[in-house]
Amino acid sequence: MAIEVGNTYQGKVTGITKFGAFVELAENKTGLVHISEISDGYVKQVGDHVSTGDEVTVKVLEIQEDGKIALSIRKAHNREEKSRRESRKQESPGSFENKMKQFLQDSEERLTALNKKTKDRRK
Length: 123
Description:
Blueprint: E1 8-17, E2 20-24, E3 30-34, E4 55-63, E5 69-72, H1 73-90, H2 96-122
Parallel strand pairs: 3-5
Antiparallel strand pairs: 1-2, 1-4, 2-3, 4-5
């Protein structure tokens, strides 16, 4: 599977620096997520958001001629959120039970993300 610009991939954080995080992708390719592409909000330290060994979803922004791969976590997440919202809009309005089920699922996802961020900051 060739890595292509614009696609999203699962990768593993292999290293953290003050300017970003290195993520290993398929075929033993490694790319860099610059600190500005970690999160939509201000990122003071990369280690506050990701840790070595974390599995992350990244979007390929650029592949340079020398083989360097520029990645983005925030754009990959924005894409996931957008596709989730679009799929919800396509569904017909459901019953109260379906709406409650969706609300609980969304709440659980947000709570899990918040707990992960809190846990990472305590390390």
